[in-house]
Each structure stands twice: as C-alpha cells, then as structure tokens.
C-alpha cells in the first residue's frame, strides 16, 4: 500500500491549481506541463492495444490519452484523486492500484506515468519495472515522466537555487522523496533489455521512453 495516500487525498481538490497555476513554489516543476502530457501521448500513439496509466492523479494525462484513444485504463491509489479523475472522465476505468499492483488480467501494450514514479524507492522501482515488464506485450513501451537529475552536481546546484528562491516545501520534497539520477534509472531499463530514449522537458522533468526487447 503506497505511503503517500494521505498526502494526495488532502491535495486532490487543489492539485489542478498547483499544476496549472502560475503563483506557487512548484511552477518550474510543472513548466510545460501540457507539452509533457502531449509528448507522452505522442510517444504511445502507435499502440493500439490497452494503455495503462499509473498514478493518474486528477486525470490530466488520462484525458489527453482518452481524447486520442478509448482503450486507456487508469490506476490510482488515492481515493480522493480517483474521485476527481472519475468526475472528469466518467467513461474511463480508473482503478485502485499502484506501481506494484495492477488489477488487469490481460497483456498491456503501453504503460505511462507522469510525476509519480518518484514515490517509490530505488529498490521498489526495480521491482516495479520487473512487474510491469511481466504485464507488457513484446515490443510494448513504458514511458515515464518525472524529476530526474543528470548528475549529482546538477542536483546540488538545483537545490541551492531552490533554497535561494525560498521554495522550502519543494526543497523538502526533493530531499525526502526518491528522485533518481538519470543513469541509475536507465540502468534498470538496461537490465531488462529495454532500449530507451530521453527527453528533457524543463529544469526538473525528463521523459524516459523505453521499448521492451529493443536492446
Ligand atoms: C504528483 S501526482 C501526479 C498526478 C498526475 N500523474 C499528473 O501528472 O499530474 C502523483 C500521483 O501518484 C500517486 N502515487 C503515489 N504513490 C504511488 C504508487 N506507489 N503507485 C502509483 N501511484 C502513486 C499519487 O496518489 C498521486 O495521484
């Protein structure tokens, strides 16, 4: 059971103000948010089978995907987040689950996620990718957008910059949640024989697009 449910149950009602707002500590984290969601949906536009999104939150990426294709299923552990996503998308299945528990019993063509993978420790990420791999068709794709750092030096400089801007909540998140170095995340995909490409979307967020069996 994910540890962050209470936080997201409480954040659910104001979450969209944070991601679309222009006056809060997280503005730079969510810079180009709409482009990030579009980029992810473009990355899976060649997939015609089931697409699963994990950690849908209020359903913003789910909506972009649904507007292109109807065979999208959302997974979200927070009850309050699921409620809001369901209100936006009454025709989409938004199921209770998480990165290590997807209640779907057929093979999946693509798995996507935005701003959620950092809730898992590195060990849980490894276990999760092994689990997701077992659910994915050959040539299936995993696309993950999240804060990732290109080097320890980059991370340290970014933390100094955030501190100088007095964004103390953001600073605390970056220090206490499980944000990885790009190389460390890529290593997990390599271990599973995935080929991958990377794209930087803003100061914080990168997208990894990984193809099963492509290495
Ligand atoms: C910052 S929100 C991102 C929401 C949405 N994907 C977006 O891009 O706006 C993180 C979401 O991940 C969910 N989450 C937290 N831990 C999770 C886990 N272990 N598995 C799946 N989702 C998780 C939270 O409940 C929350 O809805």
Automatic annotation (TrEMBL):
Top EC category: transferase
The residues forming a coiled coil are none
Q: Which SUPFAM superfamilies match?
A: S-adenosyl-L-methionine-dependent methyltransferases
Pfam families recorded: Methyltransf_25
BP-aspect Gene Ontology terms? methylation
Which part of the chain is the Methyltransferase domain?
Answer: 51-140
Q: What is its EC number?
A: 2.1.1.-
> What CDD domains would the database entry show?
AdoMet_MTases (cd02440)
Spell out the molecular function terms from Gene Ontology: S-adenosylmethionine-dependent methyltransferase activity
- Quote the record's binding site residues for S-adenosyl-L-methionine: 55, 76
Q: Kindly state which keywords UniProt assigns to this record, in alphabetical order.
A: Methyltransferase, S-adenosyl-L-methionine, Transferase
Q: What does this protein do?
A: Could be a S-adenosyl-L-methionine-dependent methyltransferase.
Family under the similarity heading: Belongs to the methyltransferase superfamily. YrrT family.
- What protein am I looking at? Uncharacterized methyltransferase SAMN02745135_01863
Name the source organism. Answer: Caloranaerobacter azorensis DSM 13643
């Amino acid at each position: 059971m994910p540890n962050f449910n209470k936080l997201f149950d409480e954040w659910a009602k104001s979450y969209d103000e944070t991601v679309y707002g222009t006056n809060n500590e997280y503005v730079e984290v969510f810079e180009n948010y709409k482009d990030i969601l579009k980029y992810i949906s473009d990355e899976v536009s060649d997939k015609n089978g089931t697409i699963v999104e994990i950690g849908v939150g209020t359903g913003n990426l789910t909506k972009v995907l649904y507007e292109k294709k109807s065979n999208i299923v959302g997974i979200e552990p927070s009850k309050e987040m699921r409620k809001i996503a369901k209100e936006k998308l009454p025709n989409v299945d938004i199921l209770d689950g998480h990165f290590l528990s997807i209640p779907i019993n057929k093979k999946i063509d693509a798995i996507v996620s935005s701003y959620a993978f950092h809730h898992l420790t590195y060990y849980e990420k490894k276990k999760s990718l092994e689990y997701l791999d077992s659910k994915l068709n050959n040539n299936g794709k995993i696309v993950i957008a999240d804060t990732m750092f290109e080097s320890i030096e980059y991370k340290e400089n970014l933390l100094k910059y955030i501190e100088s801007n007095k964004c103390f909540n953001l600073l605390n998140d970056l220090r206490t949640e499980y944000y990885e170095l790009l190389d460390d995340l890529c290593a997990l995909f390599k271990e599973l024989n995935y080929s991958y490409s990377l794209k930087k979307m803003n100061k914080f967020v990168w997208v990894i697009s990984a193809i099963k069996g492509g290495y």
